[in-house]
Amino acid sequence: QKEVEQDPGPLSVPEGAIVSLNCTYSNSAFQYFMWYRQYSRKGPELLMYTYSSGNKEDGRFTAQVDKSSKYISLFIRDSQPSDSATYLCAMKNAGNMLTFGGGTRLMVKP
Amino acid sequence: GAVVSQHPSRVICKSGTSVKIECRSLDFQATTMFWYRQFPKKSLMLMATSNEGSKATYEQGVEKDKFLINHASLTLSTLTVTSAHPEDSSFYICSASRGTGDYEQYFGPGTRLTVT
Description:
The complex is a heterodimer.
Chain A: E1 4-6, E2 11-14, E3 19-25, E4 32-38, E5 45-50, E6 54-58, E7 61-66, E8 71-76, E9 85-92, E10 99-100, E11 104-109
Parallel strand pairs in A: 2-11
Antiparallel strand pairs in A: 1-3, 3-8, 4-5, 4-9, 6-7, 7-8, 9-10, 9-11
Chain B: E1 4-7, E2 10-13, E3 19-25, E4 32-38, E5 44-51, E6 57-58, E7 67-73, E8 76-81, E9 90-97, E10 106-107, E11 111-115
Parallel strand pairs in B: 2-11
Antiparallel strand pairs in B: 1-3, 3-8, 4-5, 4-9, 5-6, 7-8, 9-10, 9-11
């Protein structure tokens, strides 16, 4: 079993839809949770960074962490075609070694 | 912001040759740099971690004699793929961090390597 599981998709939604992306993990030592966005043939860029259980909002993006269930989510409101990319969850304990999920490819159609 | 560049962005080389990829932190000092490999539609797999002035620490299964990593300064790390083979064709991404503690990793744009 992988440490971090993420549905690869692709996930196709119409413009304006609410998108829900999810990851589950098995290592209870993970304390920090991140979501990265990666456009095709580009490096990942950090979208959200959370530490504790609960919600964190930044514009159209909301990150949710449920440590008791070992489950994290990223919600995108009013999705745009420019949101089409691969979304990678990542997590770590102390230090800066990241463990990535497999990534979910999202396509937002105009 | 924290900007990381990679050069070249894409390279094609012949089997048996060596190719060097550079990773630079442009506006900060990177004590630690990471090298990842990414296959199509797959996630990032950590290859090695390097601290400035020290030997790189390789992940299990990564051949250190094949993937030579040098982190000679606080702004530059290089990955040299030696005796390249078509199976080495992949997307290589570096990231840089200000330290070994709880510091963010800033990712470069990646290098597409094709070995013919």
